Amino acid sequence: MRTAGVPAIIAALGLPMTAESNESHADTPPLLLEAAYTGEVWRNFSGGARRDGTYLDNIDVIATLDAERAFGWRGTTFLVSGLYNNKPTLSDRIVGDIQTVSNIDTEGASRVYEAWVERAFEAGAIKLGLIDLNSELDVNETGALFVNSSHGIGPDFSQVGENGPSIFPITGLGTVMRWDYNDALQIRLGAFEGTVGDPTHPNRAATFDIEDDEGALLVGELTLRPTESNRSIVGVWRHTGRSTDFNDEELQRRTESLGVYALTEGKLLERGEGSLSGFLRVGFADGDVHQISRYVGAGLVWSGPLLASAESEEQLGLAVGNIANGQPYRHAQAELGSSFERHETAIELTYRVQALPWLALQPDLQYIINPGTNPTLDDAWVVGLRFEFSWSNEAG
């Protein structure tokens, strides 16, 4: 299952994802350079594919140029970023889950991650280039705290395409247009390659071999923000490219699919210097094409003083994600001699502290019920520690 690692890490570190966020930093240099190293130590203590541990890491390097300040090109921003991940994996080898315990879990590679230009207008913006879809669409701001991939882009969406959509760790060419009708209503429209990268060589650096039959991924999203701290989004996607969720040749011929998702999130209460936020996300995909036909996720996050000093930013979160295999997928696998259950559920308890301006620590505990929907695997208890080092040339 493709994950959504970079947007979640960028959001947690407070690094900009769009020109809109970059405009709020008047004291930044025109060329903003940033780097982040994320390391994780994991151990599966019970259940899953086997009891074992591993070390995952992720390096992000980002260069953002404010072309308006540098050259006078009004509302124009350029961004280029690269990433590196080491080769060991956690979910595939050790836990056996579908939703992916860690959002930086991948088979390892070094590649250009994003390379885009964005032009902002009074009523919105348009972005074009190599784009992480999840930096613009299906963004769960409250869920950015959590390590499990399901709380980034939903697994109903991240499964789309022969090699997944344009998200971590492989992005593709695309364009996104944003229209701000007013402070409370925003519309985004996106069009992306139907097949990103090279499915036969997943570790290969960026490839742009757009073929006539690879199709496209089209996305529309509506955002309603009744208050500054609360928002709801509704999105719909249509994919016209190849899919490989089924081994059955007759089912593979039906490659065009549709899906919808909805998210509501925001602040629930405030107490002194702390606040409680929550989110609820649901998503549906075409069960005649894709393995996962439904996803439901929810979480609560407390932000405020807990264990560290008052100067340290702290968050404590509890989240749950549940996926359901579609009936056509289960029947197709049964005919091939494989048995799959209907549901997998991931429960995550996590705590994050910004111990130093350049260092964040995040212990994490996850309980995976019915990992991989595989009846031969016992429920898994997985414990991890994430640490993040960050740097930028931003003034102050």
How would you explain this protein's 3D organization?
The protein is mainly beta. It has a single domain, classed as Beta Barrel (Porin). The protein contains seven helices and 16 strands. It has helices at about 5-15, 20, 65-70, 90-95, 155-160, 250, 325-335; strands at about 30-45, 50-65, 75-85, 110-120, 125-130, 170-180, 185-195, 215-225, 230-240, 255-270, 275-285, 290-305, 315-325, 345-355, 360-370, 380-390. The chain starts with a helix and ends with a strand. Mean pLDDT is about 90; it is low at about 20-25.
Secondary-structure-derived class: mainly beta
Name of the CATH first level: Mainly Beta
CATH superfamily: Carbohydrate-selective porin OprB
**Tally of contiguous helical segments:** 7
**CATH-derived topology:** Porin
Helix content: 10-25%
CATH architecture: Beta Barrel
Low-confidence runs: 19-23
Distance between the termini: 40 Å
Number of DSSP-assigned strands: 16
Instruction: Give the strand order of the largest sheet, numbering strands 1, 2, ... along the chain.
Output: 1-2-3-4-5-6-7-8-9-10-11-12-13-14-15-16
Order of helices and strands: HHEEHEHEEHEEEEHEEEEHEEE
Looking at the structure, what is the overall shape?
globular
Number of individual domains = 1
Integer-rounded radius of gyration: 20 Å
